[in-house]
């Protein structure tokens, strides 16, 4: 009994001491250890800023490889203050959706063709006029100069900033029937196009019949004769195996749609001037990497389809094709005549 009373007394004493300690403590609970930042901080507290870059192409595609080179360069040039994570395969949305997210800072960088971007900034459509460029060198002489810089800066009104230009290749016609060497050869052919007024008018101007269709349906449509042809760049012609069912490929280079790396203005404005400059430099260097790799990809695709039996037709001149689409310049280039003239005359 005596031992039981002693145990009860001891337990009561421990309970009272615990209550007194709890009542006398006014200190808050210790703060959680902060995690690595996303793009909401300027990095002045020494933490790494993690930013996201969206691309619709799959891993291994040239633009995704260039995205990763951009990310590497950013981390190197900012000495680890800024890290870019690349999200390929449209996991963050299609091009239009990711552009919209970047406008509000939900995504930090986007690699996109100017085709969907022209829905946000109509002036960009000028850069996709048919037969506008003599060749790829002419296009980049335009884009890497004052004209291209003006276009990149014009995106600021859309709460975006353009950082650099990527090569999206030249689009060419291919078909199941015959070599196309003249406008006359295209007449009456049913040609698959993107659902775009500019592309539909292009095909119509050349005397063919534009047929909008989902890209994934093109192979079977060519195979079954629903369409006679389509148009795309070398890597796409090869990777989709369209050469198996449409072996005639004409290098007319009717459209070049350059691509852009965008940054959300909301994100960019939060960064230090030093890191902003580092990101601009990284983008320019990554674009040079992308252009070299794209040229390799085009050459490899051409070699592969020729080995598989594709018949390649290179036009001595596409002047006849240019003449056939001049009415499009009056419609789509209205109000931009001086700019178009500057582009055409760029050396």
UniProtKB/TrEMBL annotation:
UniProt keywords, alphabetically: Receptor, Signal
Domain of life per record: Bacteria
GO cellular component terms given for this protein: outer membrane-bounded periplasmic space
One example GO MF annotation: carbohydrate binding
Annotated signal peptide: 1-31
GO process terms (BP): transmembrane transport
Pfam families listed in its UniProt record: DctP (PF03480)
Positions of region (Disordered): 26-46
Keyword Signal: yes
Name of the protein this chain belongs to: Tripartite ATP-independent transporter solute receptor, DctP family
């Amino acid at each position: 009994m005596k031992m039981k009373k002693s145990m009860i007394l001891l337990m009561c004493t421990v309970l009272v001491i615990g209550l007194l300690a709890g009542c006398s403590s006014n200190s808050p609970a210790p703060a959680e250890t902060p995690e690595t930042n996303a793009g909401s901080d300027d990095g002045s507290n020494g933490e790494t800023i993690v930013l996201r870059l969206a691309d619709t192409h799959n891993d291994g595609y040239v633009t995704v490889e260039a995205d990763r080179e951009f990310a590497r360069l950013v981390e190197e040039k900012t000495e680890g203050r800024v890290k870019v994570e690349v999200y390929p395969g449209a996991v963050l949305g299609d091009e239009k959706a990711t552009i919209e997210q970047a406008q509000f800072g939900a995504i930090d960088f986007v690699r996109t063709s100017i085709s969907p971007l022209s829905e946000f900034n109509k002036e960009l459509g000028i850069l996709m006029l048919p037969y506008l460029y003599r060749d790829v060198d002419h296009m980049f002489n335009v884009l890497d100069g004052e004209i291209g810089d003006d276009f990149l800066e014009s995106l600021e009104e859309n709460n975006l900033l353009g950082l650099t230009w990527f090569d999206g290749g030249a689009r060419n016609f291919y078909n199941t029937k015959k070599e196309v060497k003249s406008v006359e050869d295209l007449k009456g052919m049913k040609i698959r196009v993107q659902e775009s007024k500019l592309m539909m008018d292009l095909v119509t101007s050349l005397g063919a019949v534009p047929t909008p269709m989902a890209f994934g349906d093109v192979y079977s449509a060519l195979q079954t004769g629903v369409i006679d042809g389509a148009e795309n760049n070398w890597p796409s012609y090869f990777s989709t195996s369209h050469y198996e069912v449409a072996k005639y490929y004409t290098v007319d280079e009717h459209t070049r749609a350059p691509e852009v790396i965008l940054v959300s203005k909301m994100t960019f404005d939060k960064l230090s001037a030093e890191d902003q400059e580092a990101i601009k430099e990284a983008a320019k260097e990554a674009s040079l990497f992308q252009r070299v790799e794209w040229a390799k990809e085009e050459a490899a695709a051409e070699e592969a389809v020729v080995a598989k039996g594709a018949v390649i037709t290179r036009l001595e001149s596409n002047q006849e094709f240019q003449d056939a689409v001049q009415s499009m310049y009056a419609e789509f280039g209205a109000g931009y005549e001086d700019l178009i003239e500057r582009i055409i005359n760029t050396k």
